[in-house]
Q: What sequence folds into this?
């Protein structure tokens, strides 16, 4: 998709994003706290890493859309995915994530512009002069495509060695361009999208140690010389061998005191039960204690797709059930569980959930399916809203009765309103894309 088309798409979906925000506000008003809404109440975002190839899974998309206010493409914006051949950019998978996020009113973190890993082979074969040109062209090409659409970019990722030396990591950029490549990348990034926050991101820098000291010294130097750096990302991958450091909050604070925001960018904590929950609480409380800690991102939606899946490090298990760690994070953020949640059977309150999946797709249109599931009590009727991008139109609908207000379709049952506790039904529809492939936004389901 060209930059011009992306600008038009963003403008055309402005109403959709606003509708998603209104839906979130309504959700909050009904006391159905989620990670994103609870974090927003603390002036922060709560995000997750997203893989484009999982967005078609109904439970994945429903959990993402319900709980999170920010997304980070897991691999889809890395160099090998976006510029596999020099000068030839490929944005399809990343566009899918950005479009989905925009349709839900979520922010997007860009990850990552310059990194030693996941480089196409042609990058390593370049001489110094060509490599400098290629690095700057890549930054301009990727940031230019998404100009105005990305909240924060990880401009440079993992440029320091792990361990006790605090030295720079060997990479094509470090070895051929020297220490100055990081500064150059940040200056190029500022010119490419002046509105985006520019971050340095690394791991094992969560406490005060040789590596974090080296990053600290670099950031202090950049701030003193006017190098454009706005934030520092702390990946925060923890387990029993690498626990949450006792000086985690103090370390975040000392970076914030340099005049940069701090963000927890790739959080996951191996473990289970109350011990895992307690560690997640420590991280959230540390962020809340630092005024310039602007948000937290967990590295994945569900344990089953985690890069550390055997360690069950996330907030939702493989069945998308909330773990004790989820409850602990929500509580630490000042939220509370929804008393009408389907996971709380027998609470006497009629409730339902609505989840969306695209069941068929072709160049000019697609079929969508919304599944309605009753909560812990039987229901006699339900209502769900579908907000379409401005260009799109519905040409057919089945198993429901629609009413329209602008591009918002309110659907009630035709014959399928009565559901037993935990039972499901649904409705389907055919959409003419009219130039927009963005997903519709599904509002909260109400039941009686």
A:
């Amino acid at each position: 998709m060209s930059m011009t088309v992306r600008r038009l798409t963003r403008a055309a979906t402005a109403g959709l994003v606003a509708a998603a925000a209104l839906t979130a506000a309504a959700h909050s008003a009904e006391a159905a706290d989620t990670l994103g809404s609870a974090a927003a109440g603390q002036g922060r975002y709560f995000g997750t890493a997203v893989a484009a190839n999982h967005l078609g899974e109904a439970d994945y998309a429903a959990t993402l859309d319900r709980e999170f206010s920010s997304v980070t493409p897991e691999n889809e914006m890395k160099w090998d995915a976006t510029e596999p051949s020099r000068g030839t950019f490929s944005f399809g998978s990343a566009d899918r994530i950005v479009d989905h996020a925009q349709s839900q009113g979520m922010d997007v973190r860009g990850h990552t512009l310059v990194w030693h890993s996941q480089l196409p082979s042609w990058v390593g074969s370049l001489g110094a002069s060509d490599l400098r040109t290629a690095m700057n062209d890549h930054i301009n090409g990727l940031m230019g495509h998404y100009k105005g659409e990305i909240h924060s970019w990880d401009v440079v990722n993992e440029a320091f060695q792990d361990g006790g030396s605090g030295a720079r990591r060997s990479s094509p950029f470090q070895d051929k361009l020297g220490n100055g490549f990081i500064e150059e990348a940040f200056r190029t990034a500022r010119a490419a999208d002046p509105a985006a926050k520019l971050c340095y991101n690394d791991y094992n820098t969560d406490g005060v140690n040789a590596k974090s000291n080296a990053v600290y010294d670099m950031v202090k130097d950049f701030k003193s010389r006017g190098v454009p750096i706005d934030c520092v990302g702390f990946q925060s991958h923890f387990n029993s061998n690498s626990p949450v450091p006792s000086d985690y909050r103090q370390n975040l604070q000392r970076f914030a005191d340099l005049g940069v925001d701090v963000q927890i960018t790739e959080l996951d904590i191996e473990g289970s039960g109350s011990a895992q929950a307690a560690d997640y609480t420590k991280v959230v409380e540390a962020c809340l204690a630092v005024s310039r800690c602007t948000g937290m991102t967990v590295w994945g939606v569900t344990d089953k797709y985690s890069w550390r899946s055997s360690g069950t490090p996330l907030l939702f298990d493989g069945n998308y059930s909330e773990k004790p760690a989820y409850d602990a994070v929500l509580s630490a953020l000042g939220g509370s569980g929804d008393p009408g949640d389907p996971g709380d059977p027998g609470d006497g309150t009629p409730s339902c959930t609505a989840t969306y999946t695209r069941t068929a797709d072709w160049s000019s249109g697609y079929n969508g399916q919304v599944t309605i599931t009753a909560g812990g009590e039987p229901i006699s009727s339900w209502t769900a809203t579908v907000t379409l991008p401005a260009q799109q139109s519905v040409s057919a609908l089945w198993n429901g009765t629609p009413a329209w207000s602008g591009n918002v379709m309110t659907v009630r049952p035709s014959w399928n309103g009565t559901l037993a506790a935990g039972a499901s039904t649904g409705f389907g529809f055919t959409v003419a894309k009219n130039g927009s492939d963005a997903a519709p936004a599904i509002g909260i389901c109400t039941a009686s």
